[in-house]
Each structure stands twice: as C-alpha cells, then as structure tokens.
Amino acid sequence: MTFLGHRYLLRFMAHALEMSHAVMDQLAVVEPKIRMRRKSLADQIGRAAESVCLNLAEGRMRAGLDRADIFRRASGSASELTAALRICRARRYITADEFAAIDACLDRVRAMAWKLTH
C-alpha cells in the first residue's frame, strides 16, 4: 500500500469511528424512553452500540486478517443495533423519525465497515 493509500485508510477508519460516536450521541436521546418501556432491550441496544465503537477503535490499531475480523464484528453489532431499533419502532417505544435519523447514521457505519472488510 502506498503512503497516500495508507493515509486515506487511516482517515477513513477515523471517520467510521466518528460516525459510530454520532450514533451513540443520537441513542442518548432515545435510550431513556426505551429503558422506561423495556429495560432489557435498552441494555442490549447499549451493548451493541458500544461494541460498534469499541471494535472500530480496536480495528484501527490491528493489521492483517485480524483487522478485517474486528471490522466484521463491528458490522454485525451495527446490524444487531438496527434490528433492536426496528423492534422499538414497531412497538412504538420510539418514533419513526427517531428511528430514521439513527438508522441513517448506522447505515453509513455499516457501509464503512463493509468497505473496510472488502
């Protein structure tokens, strides 16, 4: 990989991590509403969101196939988070607009994680 290619990859990984933190910021608004209705689901949402951030952060410092595996885990946690939020929307714990705003950021995170593994 060229030096410029490496610099681009580092910036791309940093941007993916920042997007995952943006999701965490958005979840801070809706998580209390979910927790009041279903504590176990709110806990699962928190764990999945934290897993996305932590795996993206860890993957930035890894190399080789190990890095791709960690980014796949981040992608899996992002998908889990979307499924949990869809349940919340279906059960009217959150509004469709709240879901759409969070899912738009999550979709970018998933796309970036996919690109990091392919």
Summarize the topology.
Blueprint: H1 3-37, H2 39-60, H3 64-90, H4 96-117
Gross CATH architecture: Up-down Bundle
Determine the fraction of residues in helical runs and give it as a percent range.
over 70%
Count, helices: 4
CATH topology annotation:
de novo design (two linked rop proteins)
Rg, nearest Å: 15 Å
At the fourth level of CATH, the homologous superfamily is 23S rRNA-intervening sequence
Distance between the termini: 15 Å
Assign an overall shape: elongated
**Average of pLDDT:** 94
Residue windows where pLDDT falls under 50 for at least 5 positions: none
Q: Which structural class best describes the helix and strand composition? A: mainly alpha
Quantity of strands, as a count: 0
Question: Helices and strands, in N-to-C order?
Answer: HHHH
Which sheet architecture does the biggest sheet show? Answer: none
Task: Give the domain tally.
Answer: 1
Report the top-level CATH class: Mainly Alpha
Beta-sheet strand percentage? under 5%
Describe it for me?
By secondary structure, the protein is mostly helical. The protein has a single domain, classed as 23S rRNA-intervening sequence (de novo design (two linked rop proteins), Up-down Bundle), CATH 1.20.1440. Helices cover 90% and strands 0% of the residues. It is built from 4 helices and no strands. It has helices at 3-37, 39-60, 64-90, 96-117. α2 (39-60) packs antiparallel against α3 (64-90) and α3 (64-90) packs antiparallel against α4. The radius of gyration is 15 Å and the shape is elongated. The chain starts with a helix and ends with a helix. 31% of the residues are buried. The model has no long low-confidence stretch (mean pLDDT 94).
